[in-house]
Design a protein that fits this description.
Strand order of the largest sheet: 4-2-1-5-8-9
Radius of gyration: 16 Å
Order of helices and strands: HEHEEHEHEHEEHEHE
Bound molecules: 6-phosphogluconic acid
Distance between the termini: 10 Å
Number of helices: 7
Number of strands: 9
Helix content: 25-40%
Structural class: alpha/beta
Length: 221
């Protein structure tokens, strides 16, 4: 018996709130790394309802489109509008863009900014596209090999399948978390995940880079 997308979002929010609460017992700050897109919106809205010491939580992104944070397709805007409201507005949001014209120019300062946070992250939330991408690790990106192998914190990404330049946390940095969660919905993505689980070519389906480490899968039809 599967749950609704709304109930899934509430269960995910409960798990993430519990993880942050647990880590904040033993450390001063906790880091939460979120993915953008459309899937996480009900999860952000549910998490915003939780009573946490939000002023001790750093919230950042697994990836970002290199657009103004007021643009419709900005992940920063998505997080600000749907998570950083009410009590959760006290969280410290750490964006992945800079005033530089391109992610290549901004990567160093963004990487330094992100590296200063409380790694390992308490939780990294990953999404997945129909092409098996996660964060901005895209199969058709010329930087995929670099993003899968570098020790750098962030990588600038150009992808034929995406309209904007992007910046992504590297796979290595995304692995630096106590908990990894994959949040996805729908039959199409479940089939792609099934294919990913049945093979091992990471360049074909980059989500495979996270199937070997412990991964909680939150899926609803
Ligand atoms: C982004 C996300 C990306 C997302 C997938 C799924 O910036 O778009 O970080 O990796 O998780 O593309 O997006 P949907 O939830 O919109 O299907």
């Amino acid at each position: 018996m599967s749950v609704s997308r709304e109930r899934l979002a509430q269960q995910l929010a409960e798990s993430v709130a519990e993880a942050l609460r647990t880590d904040l017992v033993r450390q001063e700050r906790a880091l939460l790394v979120l993915s953008g897109g459309s899937t996480p919106v009900p999860f952000f809205q549910a998490l915003a309802q939780h009573d946490l010491p939000w002023e001790r939580v750093d919230v950042s992104l697994a990836d970002e489109r290199w657009v103004a944070d007021t643009a419709d397709d900005s992940n920063a805007r998505l997080v600000r509008e749907h998570l950083l409201t009410g009590a959760a507005a006290a969280a410290n949001f750490v964006p992945l863009t800079s005033n530089d014209a391109t992610p290549e120019q901004g990567a160093r300062v963004v990487g330094e900014r992100v590296e200063r946070l409380a790694w390992p992250a308490s939780v990294v939330i990953l999404g997945m596209g129909g092409d098996g991408h996660t964060a901005s690790l895209f199969p058709d990106s010329q930087e995929l090999g670099l993003a899968l192998s570098t020790d750098d914190v962030v990588v600038a990404v150009r992808t034929p399948s995406q309209p904007q330049p992007r910046i992504t946390l590297s796979a290595g940095r995304l692995h630096q978390a106590r908990r990894h969660i994959l949040h996805l919905t729908g039959e199409e993505k479940r089939a792609v995940l099934g294919r990913a689980l049945a093979g091992d070519d990471v360049r074909e389906l980059p989500i495979r880079a996270f199937l070997a480490c412990p991964l909680a899968i939150y899926w609803a039809p």
